[in-house]
């Protein structure tokens, strides 16, 4: 256990983590951690996962609590968007194996469900037309794969 209570244990399958858990803000936090969350909220804005609370409100799989980014490990999909947007590099993405989505043309009916859930707008195609994935933009989050009811998307290791 960390004597300053700034290191948090995470589940083994959680690949996106906040590096420092100091509840201080900005420069004060940097006295405890070399990499510190400044509670700017960029990670929350970037998170593609929206969770409905029991009271009808919504939240993301990452939030700012007591000046610190906190990851909801039960809902985080390990896409790494939060780590890409973090201006202080306080969020680490440990994913070694990058996957990219690919549309299986024979199965795609052009329903656009995949394009609507893509957080980086990398899927193109009009309604009732075969869709294509821009491999340069795809972050491999798998949201499109999960959403496709026709098994028309596969995730390839790059």
TrEMBL record:
A molecular function (GO) term: metal ion binding
Keyword tRNA-binding listed: no
Keywords: 4Fe-4S, Iron, Iron-sulfur, Metal-binding
Record has Kinase as a keyword: no
Residue intervals passing through the bilayer: none
CDD domains to which the protein is assigned, alphabetical: MtMvhB_like
Entry superkingdom: Eukaryota
Pfam families: Fer4, Fer4_21, Fer4_4
All copies of domain 4Fe-4S ferredoxin-type, residue ranges: 26-56, 67-96, 99-128, 129-158
InterPro entries from the UniProt entry: 4Fe4S_Fe-S-bd (IPR017896), 4Fe4S_Fe_S_CS (IPR017900), Fe-S_Ferredoxin (IPR050572)
Protein name as catalogued: Electron transporter RnfB
């Amino acid at each position: 256990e960390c004597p300053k209570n700034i290191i948090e244990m995470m589940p083994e399958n959680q690949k996106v983590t906040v590096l420092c858990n100091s509840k201080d803000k900005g420069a004060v936090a940097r006295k405890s951690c070399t990499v510190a969350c400044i509670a700017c909220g960029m990670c929350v804005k970037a998170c593609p996962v929206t969770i409905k609370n029991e009271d009808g409100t919504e939240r993301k799989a990452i939030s700012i609590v007591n000046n610190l980014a906190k990851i909801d490990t039960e809902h985080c999909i390990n896409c790494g968007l939060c780590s890409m947007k973090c201006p202080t590099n306080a969020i680490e993405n440990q994913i070694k194996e990058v996957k990219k989505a690919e549309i299986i043309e024979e199965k795609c009916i052009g329903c656009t469900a995949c394009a609507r859930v893509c957080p980086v707008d990398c899927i193109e195609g009009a309604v009732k037309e075969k869709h294509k994935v821009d491999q340069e933009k795809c972050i491999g989050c798998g949201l499109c794969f999960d959403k496709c009811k026709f098994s028309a998307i596969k995730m390839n290791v790059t």
